[in-house]
Amino acid sequence: MDLHRRAVEIGHTGRFTQEIQLLRQALATLDTVGPSDDVDWVRARVRILITLAFAEAESGTLARGLARLAQLRPAVQRLTDERVRAELNAAIDGNHAGMLIRSGRYEESIPLLDSAVAHKERLLELGSDDPGRLMDSMIASLANRGQAFLEMGQIESAFINLNMAITLGLDHGLSMRVAYVRHQLGDLYLRSGDIPQALRYYQEAERDYLELGPFMLPRLRIDQSQALIAAGLADEVAKNLDDVLPQMQAERVQQDLAEAELMRATAALMEDNLSLGRKLASSARRRFKRRGSDAWAAVAALIGLRVDIARAWRGARIPVSLPTRASQLADELTTLRLMDEAALARTLAARLEVRRGNVTEATMLLSALRRPGPVTPIEQRMLLRLTRAELAAAVGNRRRAFSQARAGLNDLGNARDRMGGLELVSATAIHGQQLGDLAVRLVLDGGDSAAVARRMFGWLEQTRAQMYRYEPVSGIDDPQLVELIGEIRNLGYALRQAKLDGRPTTKLRSRYADRQRAAMRLGWHAASQWGKPRPVATVSEVLARLGSNALISFTVSGDALMAVVLAQGRVRLVRLGSAAQATENAMRLHADLNAMAPDFLPEPLFEAISASARKHAAALDAQLMRPLAGLNGDLVIVPTGSLYAVPWGVLDSLRSRPVVVAPSATAWLAASASPVHSGHTALVRGPGLSAAIGEIDKLAAHYEKATLLAGEDATSFRVLESLDGASLVHIAAHGEHEAENALFSRLELVDGALFAHELARLRQPPRQVVLAACELALNRIRPGDEALGFAGALLAGGVGTVVAAASRVGDQPAAAAMDDYHRALASGASPAVALADAMAVDPLRRPFVCLGS
């Protein structure tokens, strides 16, 4: 049996060809002393053949594996030893069920698992010669039965079986089996919509797998990817799977490889990479077909259909073949008892028919659908709401269309409320983007009246920057996350020193990226939820808070740019022309400001760049602000998309005008209403700054008492400590956006980086933070205008006002601007007034914005 044991170990790593060779060698060795009527000989041979059947099903076809198992049953039934018969029947039934589960035939697996558990219970009564192995096998059967119930949507039965399994595993010290069950509990919480809890269990399983069974990590990556897709983090799915796909392809674990390709195809679809999505969905479907996994093949066909629909949606017309194909696939999925997937296919068919103008056919398709169940994925719920809303709009029933859109966004809000960490909270917006866009289009069809403007304002506040609606949870201090962040900080410091010394950095970079990803995953569930959701701001609340000031909320529908303006007790909607034109001018202005930032540019080059910047600023001013002339008082601006990159003080109409930029009116209202506390003032200087920008001693002269942190005192711990409870913290330190992971945007301090991740540890957020030496304003924008980055983390964490640069800024202009700013601030001016005055001296060279309140 040594050959059998070695074969099983090799099979766990996915090397099935080698496993099969060893198993055949074991059979040949056994046959040299047989055939025999000896019960131990029969027992050994049957066990080898069971393992061979599973290996053949994994590397070849399901039918071949099941056929081999069927051949074993008569010989086992002829055995007179009840203990051995129960043991082998349990093994055959359990492996038969496992093969069916792997192929998506969950309902068929339940009776087999019931039988396997009954045989094992009988064996426990009779007494086993290897009770540890028997208990391990019992836990496996309970866990598999839990998995099958889970896949069938029977959450309570799944939970009962998995909890029985993990209790037995813990009682008997079976660590690897406990890791498996934690993995499955992650699946359970994923299906029930609790993404943070799912990710928590996956994280615990990963910790155990790294020590006990690294061969399980690829499977775990697939299931983690499902959770990330549910959370809208398609970019993380891509990174998660691109790491393991080559390994899977080398090991030829066909089922896992096909599932990984399917998850990666789904992520590509979410990222609008349709060619990659089509390629991977087709590859996955071929692999499933070869294995005989008809249910999985149909799911892969559904992803392929969605890719083709996305491509067709961009055209002028929908081919008749697409809704027909969707309906046929729905029938196939129903036959396979994949009811959620079948409902999704029918919903797609109905939406296609609406687009083609066949409202009667669309109505029939939708009326045949059952209500979504408690475990129906949020993405599917949103698609159904969207299709119903589009159908209602198509027949002229605007009231029902709005009702469906509102209900869908409420569903999304309920899902968002269960998320943990900013990344998850903000990423869910992708699921509601089309529904929000439809609501905006429907509002615009109603004209430009005050009632339409009020309705538009309401929809914008329900669909944009929702992560800022939450009252942050203070003092999140997960010890494991703190330790990881500390390790990342040290690695970053070592990496920086290695670069300066000219030493190799490949291993350090790899470790740094690995630890970042580990911290990010842990941060997803460091808190069970980000915070308590606030109600959406109403027009009357905003007007009351504005007083004599004005708020401008920009939005886009198609290529139409508009502004909802709240001022002087009234609301109006103003159309502002082409969104593409505004985007181009905003991005060109941003590029020009970056190019002219260095302190000592040659004069001719500086003049050429500044002329271009003035031209694009003038174009933006003419398009965005001049049609809104006549607004009094200070301005609150809620940008959209590329307009977040605009430092508004560079527009002639806004020169010397106090302007505050907020992610939403709800966020502005919350920041404005936060209590003003009389905390301390801290001035921080990071390493590697020029003399000009590092002159915090000069700034200290503006305040009677201020704490100065510079040199060896400017550590991440001291700076984080200074932020807690402060009235004002000025930080002059180099900083950098992390485009692929906003919470790792950072400020460079003497001992390494201070990450946005760490701001959740603050017990009392500072009232105001000034980021003087880096471009860290809100210019990482996700779907739904979810503005992330270091400044975004500060605002979402409860900081009232953040002053930061919207583009690069030279050291000398930044230092001069900050001196002017703090002089005005110390004399009693509000942040927006102080910044407006400071910027007016040289707007193009001082591109700062006042964010929040």
Automatic annotation (TrEMBL):
Task: Provide the CHAT domain boundaries.
Answer: 616-839
Instruction: Return the SUPFAM superfamilies for the record.
Output: TPR-like
Q: Which domain of life is it from?
A: Bacteria
Q: Which residues belong to the signal peptide in this entry? A: none
| Annotated Pfam families | CHAT (PF12770)
Task: Report the InterPro entries cross-referenced here.
Answer: CHAT_dom, TPR-like_helical_dom_sf
User: By what name is this protein known?
Assistant: CHAT domain-containing protein
Q: Which organism is it from?
A: Kibdelosporangium philippinense
